[in-house]
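To the wet lab folks,

You asked to see what we're planning to order before we commit. Fair enough. Below is the target structure as tokens, and below that is the sequence we designed to fit it. If anything looks off to you, flag it before the synthesis order goes out.
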């Protein structure tokens, strides 16, 4: 991850030594750069030499002639001495925001290691205290690497799979389970039975004993509307004999009509057979 406003001098155990290992032009420590000197012994970092030589062929201090960077000698002694300096791991600070007012040593959770400059990059690559982005988008928390597992257990944006097979952010999971989950249970507002949410519509339309429904004989004339739980008693009352008789009469008329249709079809079949024989 990117580290904001990183200043290497913040890591030096002995900050007073920083000046003797800083380029006199850019004032930056010689970490990660090469050091070159002119024939008079004036040294600067390779970046400042290259920038200066692109404009003037001379040393920036004594003005002696320097045709190119190849005319300079590498100051390996200084580079090696710098690499022997002791530095703290950058993960010893809060959120790695170095070189500004937010720089604060993390005594509780920060890295306690002190290493030579030349071992710093290797240590940082393996350091369990480095800050890392939470993989659960869009979580903005930046935990340390050794805290990531515990953070994942409470991260609001960790996706949890509900029994309805939907993936829901942890922060919304209880709301989903209690209100929206199709597999979740809820209480029927009429009969107080606990039932799966996705079955509630059928329960109300077909089963709930507290729902008022029209009598089964509505289309035959009964206008009663009663609770479903009382429907059976209502149907067995003596008031439905006339409706039953009417149904029987309607069914007998249907039987007579069907028999008549059957006779007509039989006649048509005989006629068709005669027509087929005449054609042959």
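Sequence we intend to order:
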């Amino acid at each position: 991850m990117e580290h904001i406003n990183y200043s290497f001098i913040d890591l030096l155990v002995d900050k007073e030594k920083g000046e003797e290992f800083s380029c006199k032009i850019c004032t930056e420590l010689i970490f990660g750069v090469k050091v070159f000197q002119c024939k008079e012994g004036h040294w600067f970092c390779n970046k400042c030499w290259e920038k200066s030589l692109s404009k003037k062929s001379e040393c920036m201090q004594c003005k002696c002639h320097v045709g190119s960077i190849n005319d300079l000698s590498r100051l390996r002694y200084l580079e090696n001495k710098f690499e022997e300096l002791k530095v703290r791991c950058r993960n010893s600070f809060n959120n790695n925001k170095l070189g500004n007012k937010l720089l604060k040593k993390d005594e509780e959770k920060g890295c306690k290691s002190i290493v030579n400059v030349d071992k710093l990059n290797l240590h940082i690559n393996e350091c369990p205290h480095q800050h890392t982005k939470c993989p659960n988008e869009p979580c903005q928390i930046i935990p340390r690497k050794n805290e990531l597992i515990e953070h994942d257990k409470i991260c609001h944006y960790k996706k949890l799979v509900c029994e309805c097979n939907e993936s829901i952010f942890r922060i919304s999971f209880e709301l989903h389970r209690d209100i929206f989950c199709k597999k979740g249970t809820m209480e029927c507002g009429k009969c107080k039975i606990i039932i799966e949410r996705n079955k509630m519509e059928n329960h109300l339309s077909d089963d709930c004993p507290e729902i008022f429904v029209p009598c089964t004989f509505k289309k035959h004339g009964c206008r009663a509307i009663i609770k479903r739980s009382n429907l059976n008693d209502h149907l067995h009352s003596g008031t439905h004999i006339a409706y039953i008789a009417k149904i029987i009469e309607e069914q007998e008329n249907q039987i007579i009509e069907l028999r008549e249709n059957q006779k007509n079809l039989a006649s048509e079949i005989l006629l068709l057979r005669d027509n087929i024989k005449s054609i042959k």
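Structural context that might help your review: Residues 241-279 form the longest helix (39 residues). The chain has a mean pLDDT of 88.

Thanks,
Computational group
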